[in-house]
C-alpha cells in the first residue's frame, strides 16, 4: 500500500513587494537580493490575515464534501501560533466544518513543524488506510523593517491531505533525521520579530543536510543517481542552491544538469512569495510538480530544516495519477492578480499589528474568503464570507 501526499494547495494574500523597490529604498544593488539571496518578490500579509486564516484559505482547496468525513486528524505546523494554550488547529477545524470526532493539534519546531505532521500522518494512515490527515504549514515571516532579514520575509500557508494511494506523491519508508540544541534562530514569547544569526544558520542548515543525506544513503542504499530532483526548505532560494551544490559532485555531468534544471523549477514559486517558514519546503515541492517535466515513478528527495535545530531528509516517488494542470492554472491566475505595493504601502501594512485589546478591523482591502475581523473579549473573531 502506498501512502503519501494526495493533494497539496497553497494560499497567500495578493499584496506583494518587489525586491528591486526594497533594494533601492535600502541603498542596495538589486542583484544582491535577486542573485545573492535568490529572491525577486515577497508576499506582504495584512493584519486581517493570521496563521489560522491563511491555513483556512489554503485548506478549502483540498477539503471538500468528497473527503471531509474521511479526515481523522488536523496537524497544524506553525511558529506563528495565535495562542499559548489553544491550538490553531481547533480554530481551523471549526472554519472548515470538520467533524467533532477528530484530533486537532498544533506542532512547533521552527520551520520543521509541517514535516513532523507529514511523518505522523504517514504512520497514522498506515494503520487506518480508509482515513486521511490534513497537514498544515502556515506562517508569517517577520524580521523587521531595515533589518538584515527584511529581504527574507513573506508568509502564506500550504495544506496537504495525506492518504493511502495518493494522487500526487508516494512517500518512501526510509527517512533520516537529526536534532541539536542550536541558537541560530529563535523568537521569544515577548517578541513579534524573530532573532537570527544568519551566517551561522546557513552553515548549520548545510551541515544538517549533509549529515542526514549520508544517514539516508546508508539506510536506503540509494545514491544521488536514483533521484530526478530535490526540493528544499527555502527561507530564501539561494540557501537550497548551496545545499544542492554540496552533493552535486556525486552525480554524473548529465545528471548534474538535470538536477540543476529541476531545482530552478522547484524554486520558481518561492522566489515570488518569500519565506513561508513551515510551508516553505512544500511550496517548493508544489513548484517542482508544476514547473518541471516530471514522470510517474521518478524519485524526489526532500530536505526539511527547522532552526534550533531539526533536520530531516526523506524521499518518495511521483504518483501514477499526478496531474499538475489545476495547480498551474491557480498559480497563473494568482500571480496575474497580485497588487504590487510601493514602499510606503508596504511599510504601513507591515507596521499594522493586532493590538492586545478589543478591536474591529477594516476588511475593505482583503478579498479572501476567510478573514480575521478583530478581537472581542480577548477572543479572535473569524469570518467565512461564504457563510454570511
Number of beta strands: 17
Number of domains: 1
Order of helical and strand elements:
EEHHEHEHEHEEEEEHEHHHHEEHEHEEE
* Sheet/helix structural class: alpha+beta
Mean pLDDT over the residues: 97
Please list the strands of the largest sheet in the order they lie side by side.
5-4-6-7-1-8-13-12-11
> Based on CA inertia axes, which overall geometry fits?
globular
What name does CATH use for the topology? Peroxisomal Thiolase, Chain A, domain 1
Provide the CATH top-level class. Alpha Beta
**Main β-sheet, in a few words?**
9 strands, mixed
- What are the low-pLDDT stretches, counting only 5+ consecutive residues below 50? none
CATH superfamily: Thiolase/Chalcone synthase
Short summary:
This protein has 388 residues and is α+β, with helices and mostly antiparallel strands. It has one domain: Thiolase/Chalcone synthase (Peroxisomal Thiolase, Chain A, domain 1). It contains twelve helices and 17 strands.
Amino acid at each position: 500500500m502506498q501512502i503519501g501526499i494526495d493533494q497539496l494547495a497553497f494560499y497567500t494574500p495578493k499584496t506583494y513587494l518587489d525586491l528591486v523597490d526594497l533594494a533601492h529604498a535600502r541603498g542596495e544593488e538589486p542583484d544582491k537580493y535577486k542573485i545573492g539571496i535568490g529572491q525577486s518578490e515577497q508576499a506582504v500579509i495584512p493584519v486581517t490575515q493570521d496563521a489560522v486564516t491563511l491555513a483556512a484559505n489554503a485548506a478549502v482547496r483540498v477539503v471538500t464534501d468528497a473527503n471531509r468525513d474521511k479526515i481523522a486528524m488536523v496537524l497544524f505546523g506553525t511558529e506563528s501560533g495565535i495562542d499559548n494554550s489553544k491550538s490553531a488547529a481547533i480554530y481551523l477545524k471549526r472554519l472548515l466544518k470538520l467533524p467533532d470526532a477528530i484530533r486537532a493539534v498544533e506542532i512547533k519546531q521552527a520551520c520543521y513543524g509541517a514535516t513532523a505532521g507529514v511523518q505522523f500522518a504517514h504512520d497514522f494512515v498506515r494503520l487506518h488506510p480508509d482515513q486521511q490527515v490534513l497537514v498544515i504549514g502556515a506562517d508569517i515571516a517577520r524580521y523587521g523593517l531595515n533589518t538584515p532579514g527584511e529581504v527574507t520575509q513573506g508568509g502564506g500557508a500550504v495544506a496537504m491531505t495525506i492518504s493511502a494511494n495518493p494522487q500526487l506523491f508516494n512517500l518512501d519508508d526510509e527517512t533520516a533525521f537529526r536534532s541539536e540544541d542550536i541558537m541560530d534562530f529563535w523568537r521569544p514569547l515577548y517578541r513579534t520579530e524573530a532573532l537570527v544569526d544568519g551566517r551561522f544558520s546557513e552553515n548549520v542548515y548545510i551541515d544538517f543536510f549533509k549529515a542526514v543525506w549520508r544517514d539516508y544513503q546508508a539506510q536506503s542504499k540509494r545514491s544521488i543517481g536514483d533521484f530526478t530532483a530535490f526540493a528544499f526548505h527555502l527561507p530564501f532560494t539561494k540557501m537550497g542552491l548551496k545545499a544542492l551544490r554540496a552533493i552535486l559532485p556525486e552525480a554524473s555531468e548529465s545528471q548534474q544538469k538535470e538536477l540543476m534544471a529541476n531545482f530552478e523549477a522547484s524554486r520558481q514559486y518561492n522566489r515570488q512569495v518569500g519565506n513561508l517558514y513551515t510551508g516553505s519546503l512544500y511550496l517548493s515541492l508544489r513548484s517542482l510538480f508544476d514547473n518541471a517535466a516530471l514522470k510517474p515513478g521518478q524519485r524526489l528527495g526532500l530536505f526539511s530544516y527547522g532552526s534550533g535545530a531539526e533536520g530531516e531528509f526523506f524521499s518518495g516517488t511521483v504518483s501514477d495519477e499526478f496531474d499538475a494542470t489545476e495547480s498551474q492554472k491557480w498559480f497563473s491566475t494568482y500571480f496575474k492578480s497580485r497588487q504590487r505595493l510601493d514602499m510606503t504601502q508596504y511599510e504601513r501594512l507591515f507596521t499594522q499589528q493586532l493590538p492586545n485589546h478589543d478591536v474591529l478591523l477594516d476588511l475593505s482591502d482583503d478579498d479572501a474568503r476567510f478573514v480575521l475581523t478583530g478581537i472581542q473579549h480577548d477572543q479572535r473573531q473569524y469570518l467565512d464570507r461564504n457563510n454570511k
